[in-house]
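step: validate -> pass
step: tokenize input -> pass
step: predict -> running
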Amino acid sequence: MESSSSASDTRTGTDSKPFRPEEVRIILESLQQPAVFLNMVSDWPALRWTIEHLSQVLHGKELTFRMGKRKTHNAPQFETHCDYIEATLQEFLVWLHGETNSSPGPFGPFPRSQYWAYADYKYIAVMFEDNAELFQDVIWSDFGFPGRDGRDSTLWIGSEAANTPCHLDSYGCNLVVQVQGRKRWHLFPPEDTSFLYPTRIPYEESSVFSSVNIVNPDLERFPRFGRVRPYVVTLNPGEVLFVPRHWWHYVESLDPVTISINSWIELGEDDEARVGEALTRTIVCALKSTDHSTDTASWLNATEDAVTSYESNLRYVNLALQACLDKAKTSSPGSREGRGQWMHDSPALPKKRKGDPGGGGPRDLAEPRDANVYFGPNLVPVRQEETAAAAVDRVSENHPVDSSLEANQQGLHCHPNPASGDGTLMSTDELINCLVHPDVIHLMTEILLDRHRSH
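step: predict -> pass
step: emit ->
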């Protein structure tokens, strides 16, 4: 099915927008906190990508939906704790609008009153491979990234209460446009990392998860979480959120249907981050492969194809390390390249896949100005809450609490447990989370690079 109209037919011109593309690039490079752009995408054809429109365009194509429980407990509902089904958007609509609580087909076992559904991380280039003209409906050139469109973007379709566990992305920064419905974002700065109890179980490349259920935290188990001051914003249709590098985020859908489009944008620091991610994969796979107390599905996220061998992981460490060293050789002494710079041509950065460790040269932009001078009616900073208690108070009626002992114990991987019958004080997961803690991996990466630079 063809797009309702091409981007060239509906564009009103960048002169009507509050910021020129080159201005946005400078703003993004200057921003040190999340911010929301307004009145920048009103002419994007992608804003017409409602659930009904997408259902017609995809015409019976099946998507993978992650099915999660509405009833929450003190442990995060990681993706390894969810069910997965294959279904069409037509079947999703029947499930959403059915007069009864049940639905035939793949959604049948999941009553709406108990479950939410999320078709997340869907690469538009794959979803719309038979409708390539739709790629032009997403126009990231308005944000200073010429040539970037739907091919470099990811689509998210969820029902009310669908959510993404709190995590940080190891690579790049993030631009998110809200298309339909509202989403609430809870964000935490990189300096709050120790308060969020990072874990790499479940494992997926480029995602560091928090052990804390941030909408219903167990402050007795995670007392430092009480010291965070979250940044919270509700993103409405037509608004674009900028998430800076390494900012933690938990995202929840507030309306019956929510649709978002995002693009992860590569930065110069990602070369070193790829070395760290290669080290992390090597350690996690090596230790978990010898831990016979759990099955692979309990610790490896569905976004990962398989457990990779030690030989493959070591080869990836060497490739990432060599790419980082090669980049350093081509950078002139004292240049601004690498740190906080956009990569040349800003190629799309897969969130759930390794990507090429080579990347490309960063583009040297004009010296950034203070982003505060741009704040106003068309660029709004995300405000910080007073205390972590404010985030707890935001638990909606869509998140009823299951306080049973069994529920609270489920999925807590990374903290000491009482001694078991065989005298074990430390689990494999706890050992892993010590060895691959972000601070430890950063130090290992620096040591490796220093050793090889000196040769």
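step: describe -> The longest helix spans residues 310-330.
step: cleanup -> pass
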